Amino acid sequence: MTMLEIKDFGKRFTIHHLEKTMPAIEHINFSLEAGEFIGIVGKSGSGKSTILKSIYRSYLPDTGNILYNSARFGQVDLATISEREMLYLRQYEIGYVSQFLNVMPRTTCRQLVINALLEMGESEEVALKESGEALTHFEMDPKLWDSYPNTFSGGEKLRLNIAMATVKNPRLLLLDEPTASLDQQSKVKVREMIEKLKNKGTTLVGIFHDIEFMEGLCDKVYDIQSRLQTVVKETITYES
């Protein structure tokens, strides 16, 4: 079953004070079956994050279609569905991990993960248990669990971001440089969680500058420069 299909996607941005509209990316085409992981590669500024943000509908595409097979709505075009439908998909089906943490102020680390589970309809008892397991997996110091994230380091914020997204076991997970500020041990924990989600059937789209991290993890690679989607048999041999 095709979970996600990007068809002739393009995005432009307008620089109002210069009265110019500039193309950010165009003619993007790739598809992803349920449970697969595709890695998007390309040089900085090539539009990788723009693709992810458009799938999540932070941006609206200017051309093309983003077809997603929803458990609730069936096949929908994420470029044109209603805001209410998109909010539902973000809450229950599509997760997004960025390099930056943007959360409600004066909410503790543990409560943020608990809230993510409560949104899914879990009981407070289950949410408390699973939030602790998630924070432990990502080696968050228990002393930080009841602290506010604005005091955290960049790596701690990123690990919390990943915990909040992955604890919901999303149907589709978008990963925008999820290992950017992590040490090697933390990267291993992220890889373990990705493998766990894949085994549960989550479909993933990820951006990584760390090509070694992707070896043996992705099923497909999409190279923005060549506009080529490659099926990975064993390990990735892409050279940046």
Automatic annotation (TrEMBL):
Belongs to the ABC transporter superfamily. It holds the Pfam family ABC_tran. GO terms for molecular function: ATP binding; ATP hydrolysis activity. Keywords: ATP-binding, Nucleotide-binding. Transmembrane segments: none annotated. SUPFAM superfamilies: P-loop containing nucleoside triphosphate hydrolases. Gene3D superfamilies: P-loop containing nucleotide triphosphate hydrolases. It comes from the Bacteria. InterPro entries: AAA+_ATPase (IPR003593), ABC_transporter-like_ATP-bd (IPR003439), P-loop_NTPase (IPR027417). This is ATP-binding cassette domain-containing protein. Residues 4-240 form the ABC transporter domain. PROSITE patterns: ABC_TRANSPORTER_2 (PS50893).
